[in-house]
């Protein structure tokens, strides 16, 4: 839709904006220029968050593909509001809302052969989660992961970032997570060891919106 001026573009985006472990092998995200007003809104959304247990640094939106910026979009689905739909092909999370809308977030996904697909639930959620590489990760890359076999405490350097939502299927932990990342340039790529990674500001937003037990569909 063509908006009549920059102010309308800003208001449109501003409305949308208001409303386990992984590592990276990705390449830089392609950059497209944001409209002036939209960039201002996005800068606010991805500003420093000093009130967290660990200060979340600002993200330079000039380094983010505009399509990956959090925004409300039209989204037709039979799934009820509150459902999380992860489209691994397009690399978006959609949080279904009322009225044919969804909140859309850009994500990084698992490399081919490592990703989870199917239906799960959010078993539980954690702020600034502890991270422990899975036995498969340690076996695959022992030099990289063996030193963390007993885990890493939460913090800015932790691969799970500011929040984690733990996916369970049939009452069992799938070992796959929706979580933050300290590498926002990986958003939009298939780079992780199976998990769904989000920018820290985005995973904090999603965490606030969904309770444990929420349905998750990974396509």
TrEMBL record:
SUPFAM superfamilies: L,D-transpeptidase catalytic domain-like
Keyword terms: Cell shape, Cell wall biogenesis/degradation, Glycosyltransferase, Hydrolase, Peptidoglycan synthesis, Signal, Transferase
Ranges where the L,D-TPase catalytic domain occurs: 82-219
Name of this protein: Probable L,D-transpeptidase YbiS
Signal peptide: 1-20
One Pfam family hit: YkuD
GO molecular function term, any single one: peptidoglycan L,D-transpeptidase activity
Top-level EC class as recorded in UniProt: transferase
Family the UniProt entry places it in: Belongs to the YkuD family.
GO biological process: cell wall organization; peptidoglycan-protein cross-linking; regulation of cell shape
EC numbers for this chain: 2.-.-.-
Pathway: Cell wall biogenesis; peptidoglycan biosynthesis
Coiled coil stretches, renumbered: none
């Amino acid at each position: 839709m063509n908006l009549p001026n920059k102010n309308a573009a800003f208001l449109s985006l501003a409305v949308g904006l208001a409303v386990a472990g992984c590592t990276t092998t990705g390449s830089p995200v392609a950059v497209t220029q944001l409209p002036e007003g939209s960039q201002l809104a996005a800068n606010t959304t991805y500003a420093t968050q000093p009130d967290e247990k660990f200060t979340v640094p600002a993200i330079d939106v000039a380094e983010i593909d505009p399509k990956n910026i959090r925004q409300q979009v039209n989204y037709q689905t039979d799934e009820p509001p509150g459902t999380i739909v992860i489209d691994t092909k397009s690399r978006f999370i959609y949080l279904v809302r009322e009225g044919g809308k969804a909140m859309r977030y850009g994500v990084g996904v698992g490399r081919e052969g490592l990703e989870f697909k199917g239906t799960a639930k959010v078993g539980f959620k954690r702020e600034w989660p502890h991270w422990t590489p899975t036995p498969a990760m340690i076996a695959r890359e022992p030099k990289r992961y063996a030193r963390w076999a007993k885990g890493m405490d939460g913090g800015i350097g932790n691969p799970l970032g500011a929040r984690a939502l733990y996916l369970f299927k049939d009452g069992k932990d799938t070992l796959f997570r929706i979580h933050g990342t300290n590498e926002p340039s990986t958003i939009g790529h298939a780079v992780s060891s199976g998990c769904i990674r989000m920018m820290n500001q985005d995973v904090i937003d999603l965490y606030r919106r969904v309770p444990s037990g929420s349905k998750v569909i990974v396509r």
